[in-house]
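Sat 14:20. Reprocessing the chain from the morning session after the first attempt stalled halfway. Input below, unchanged.
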Amino acid sequence: MRIIDLSLPIDDQAFEVHHLEIDRVSHKAGVAKFNRIIMGKTLIGRIKYLLGKRILRKEDLPDEEFLSLEVVHSPVHIGTHLDYSFHYGSRSENRPSKTAEEIPLEWCYQDGVRLDLRHKKPAEVITKDDLEVALKKINYELKPMDIVLLETGADKFFGTPKYFSEYPGIDISAIDYLLDKGIKIFGTDTMGIDRPYKFMLKEFIDRKKPLYPAHFHGRKREFIHIERLANLNILPPFGFKINCFPIKIKRTGAAWSRVVALL
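Finished this time. Tokens:
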């Protein structure tokens, strides 16, 4: 069996529009942090710490190193992640929206299908007709529960400003087409399922065209989508499994996932 990683990292060195920070405490610095935290739990301990007393010294440890520690300050929409209905609005299909920890796990391990849509331009949207043409090219008929991956090639821009401006959106007609086929999860290698801000926001200001139509459609019909996939070009059109189990974070509209394909 071959495993292909379809995920992008949470990378504090990559260009992002949301704030991302990773605090890294080194093995050497961990000694000082341990003393500061443990001794700071009591008043007498804090006083002794300020007077220079230490309960742990580097000489007490193998290689004079403590444990490393990384603290990630990141929105759940950075890195490869699954969006669920709470992200789209407080209600979906006339009932309270579901949060990411409620994603049914059986939906997250299913047959995968890759559709090549690299011809679509950033100002455009992927429509129902586009999906039908792509499926006809690979001679495949969707079945319920398939996880459909839409390849645009936008992942090649990850880490640069172009990643946030050079990709096509997904039309409501395409979402409805997938849902009508019994699809529960679809994914894309773009940073979002709506068109980039430079198109969407301008049309909203100039002509009052709706903002985030694909996302807001999740208030009418419940669906899950994966954003920020990568390496879809490595996959065959079908004949593989997708594993996209979400991290169990309470009361969020999205959750990170290490999405992989199993061939």
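The chain has a mean pLDDT of 96.
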